[in-house]
Amino acid sequence: MVIKEISLEVPNIKNIIREVETSIAVLSYNKPKPRIVVVPGNFDDLPEEIEGGLYKTTQTAEGTLYYSRDEAPGYQVESGIYQDNDTQNLFKLAYKTIIQAHEESTGEKNLPSYQNSWFYISPPSNDSASFHEHTRFNDTFPYDPTVYTWTYYLQIPDNCVEKEGKLAYLVGKEEHLLDIQLNTLYVFPGSLPHRPNLAPNSTLNRITAAGNIIIAGSEKNFFNLQ
After folding, report:
1. All domains in the chain, ordered by first residue
2. pLDDT in tens, 189-206
3. In a 3-state reduction of DSSP, which class is residue 203?
4. Reported pTM
5. Between 85-106 and 13-26, two packed helices, what is the crossing angle to 10 degrees?
6. Stretches in the chain below the pLDDT threshold 70
């Protein structure tokens, strides 16, 4: 099992969608820039990945260039800006559902756990999407590895053809595709490379709630149980 699917009905989805689309319309969005680090040393002698979700890309005169893959081409908005009850409830409900499932599956209980969450809005006009992962919990705690990443689709693209609109993910170098559904919480390791496929023929924005969860002291998860 690479992705765990949990049935979850969130109340008042239309209200949440309205809050998200209003914020995009009235606020001035600043797209985060990719993180880039130059590490002294020869390209072939350095690891493919270093802590903080940075990946080796090329040799420069100063050293080896590493960059982040976690930048998103759509709109990624932190959940903390929303103060309405319906939106806050969505993120609390997803968090509680995953923590409860973790405790039931692993037997680990009452460990400190934390969530970093956001909305991702991808309009049909998006022309780029890349595989990325969420190993870094967030910018404040980049070295605390994410145990679970989750996504929950509030609005999915229509008029999709073939691979359009699907959730793609990599197992090794093999690409897999998942048909996304409403009322479903998708949970996977933070280290899983994934990509929301573009949907240029859609008449709707893809609106996704998502989060990273860390569980301090945890030695188990859904995906490493024997």
Report:
1. 4-28+74-215 (2.60.120.620), 36-68 (no CATH)
2. 999 989 899 999 999 999
3. coil
4. 0.84
5. 120
6. 32-34, 51-53, 69-73, 226
